[in-house]
Design a protein that fits this description.
The chain is mainly alpha-helical. It folds into 2 domains: 47 residues, no CATH class; 92 residues, CBS-domain. It is 49% helix and 11% strand. Strands 1-2-3 form a 3-stranded mixed β-sheet. β2 and β3 form a beta hairpin. α1 packs antiparallel against α2. The chain is elongated, with a radius of gyration of 18 Å. The two termini are 24 Å apart. The mean pLDDT is 75. One of its GO terms (cellular component) is plasma membrane.
Amino acid sequence: MTVETVIKLGLALLFGLLIGIDRQVKQKQLGLKPSMVICIASCLVTIVSIDVVIVSQTDPVTDVMKRLSHEESGAETFYYLHVTNENSRLLGVVFLRELIISSPDSLMKDIMSPQIISVPVDASQSEVLQIIRKYGLFAVPV
C-alpha cells in the first residue's frame, strides 16, 4: 500500500466521520450509526477513486501526454490536471479536452485555466453540491 493510498484512506475516514457526526448531531443521535458508516464508505469510494495528476507549469504537452500514457499510479479517473509552480503552489488546471487539442509544444502555463474553484474543509455537503452544480465539475478540491 502506497503512502498516497494511506493518506486517501485517512482522509476518507476523517471526512466520512465528520459528515456522519454532523448528520447525527442534527438528528440528536450520537454514536456510530448505520448512516455514519454509509457516509464513511461514500467518502472512501469518492476519495480513493479520484486521482490527482499534478504537472509543472513548464511541462510541454508532449511530455505530459507521454507521462499519462505510461502512468503507473492508477490515475484512471481524472478530468483535469493540476498545474503547479516550482514551489508546488497550485496555479491552475488544464482540462483534458484542452490538453488533447493543444499544440504538442505548448506549455501547461499557456493552456491552463487560472481560475481555481475549491471549497473550504468545513463546507457542508449542500455547499459543495452547489459549487459542483454551478461550475459543472466532476470533483472539487478542498
